[in-house]
Design brief:
The termini are far apart. The longest helix has 21 residues. The protein is globular. The chain is 13% helix and 30% strand. Helix 1 packs antiparallel against helix 2. The protein folds into 2 domains: 46 residues; 164 residues, UDP N-Acetylglucosamine Acyltransferase, domain 1 (3 Solenoid), CATH 2.160.10.10. A 9-stranded mixed sheet has the order 1-4-7-10-13-18-21-23-24. Strands 2-5-8-11-14-19-22 form a 7-stranded parallel sheet, with no helix packed on it. Strands 3-6-9-12-17-20 form a 6-stranded parallel sheet, with no helix packed on it. By secondary structure, the protein is of the alpha/beta class.
C-alpha cells in the first residue's frame, strides 16, 4: 500500500520545517540578531520537548523568545536549551549561573542568585518545567546527567524565625550548599534544602522533602526523605 496523501503532506511539511530551522539556527547567538534568528527558527518547530533539538543545531544553543536572561554572569556551555518563559535572574551581589554542555531547562523554570549565591548545572542535565533554584549565601551544584522532574525546588537558605521581629526583617541563614551528584534522579515536586548532598545515582521519590544527605545509589522517599533501599548491581 502507498503512503496516504495526508501522510505525504506531513512528511514534506516536516522536511521543510527542518530545513527552515537549520537555516536560521546557523545565525543563532546571544545578541539581538542571534535571538531573532532563534525566534525565526522556532516558528515551525514542534512544541515542548521536541524543541530541545534546536539547541543541537548550533553551539550557541537555543533560548526561547519568551525566556528572560537578566543576569550579568550567566555562563552557558555549548548546545544549551532554555525553554519558554524561563527566567534567569541576578539579584544584588548575586554570583554566577553556569550551565554545562547540552543542559536543558524546560518552560516556566526560574534560577535566581543573590548575595553570596551561585548555581552550577553540569553537562547533560535535564530540568523539567516549573522548577526553581534560589541561591543566596551559598551554592547549588547539580552534577552531570542529573534528571530533575517538574516542580522541584532548591533552597539552600532560609529566613531567621526568632520571636519579636517580623520574619521579613530577619537575616537570611544557611546550613550549607546543595550538591546533587551525577546521574541522580529527582521525582516530581521534590524540595531540597540547605546542607544536603544527594549522592551520585541516587533516586528521590515524588513529593519528598530532603533535609539530610542521601548516599550514592540510595532510594529515598517521604517528608523528611528517608532511604528505603539501595540500588544494587545484579
Amino acid at each position: 500500500m502507498g503512503t496516504p496523501v495526508g501522510g505525504v503532506a506531513q512528511i514534506q511539511q516536516s522536511r521543510a520545517a527542518r530545513r527552515w530551522a537549520r537555516f536560521w539556527m546557523r545565525f543563532a547567538g546571544y545578541g539581538a540578531g542571534g535571538r531573532l534568528a532563534m525566534r525565526l527558527a522556532a516558528w515551525f518547530a514542534p512544541p515542548h520537548k521536541d524543541q530541545v533539538q534546536l539547541a543541537r543545531l548550533n553551539k550557541n544553543g537555543f533560548i526561547a523568545p519568551s525566556a528572560v536572561i537578566y543576569h550579568a554572569q550567566f555562563q552557558p556551555g555549548q548546545n544549551v536549551y532554555i525553554g519558554d518563559r524561563v527566567i534567569i535572574y541576578q539579584a544584588r551581589d548575586g554570583g554566577p549561573v553556569q550551565m554545562g554542555d547540552r543542559a536543558a531547562m524546560l518552560r516556566d523554570s526560574i534560577i535566581e542568585t543573590g548575595r553570596g549565591g551561585s548555581v552550577s548545572i553540569g553537562d547533560d542535565v535535564y530540568i523539567h518545567p516549573r522548577c526553581q533554584m534560589n541561591a543566596y549565601l551559598t551554592s547549588i551544584t547539580i552534577g552531570r546527567g542529573v534528571m530533575v522532574a517538574a516542580n522541584c525546588v532548591f533552597y539552600p537558605h532560609n529566613h531567621g524565625v526568632a520571636a519579636g521581629q517580623p520574619i521579613r526583617e530577619q537575616p537570611l541563614e544557611t546550613k550549607g550548599p546543595i550538591v546533587i551528584g551525577e546521574n541522580a534522579w529527582l521525582g516530581t515536586g521534590v524540595v531540597v534544602l540547605g546542607g544536603v548532598t544527594i549522592g551520585a545515582g541516587a533516586v528521590v521519590g515524588a513529593g519528598s522533602v530532603v533535609t539530610n544527605s542521601i548516599p550514592a545509589n540510595g532510594i529515598a522517599v517521604g517528608s523528611p526523605a528517608q532511604v528505603v533501599k539501595m540500588r544494587e548491581s545484579d
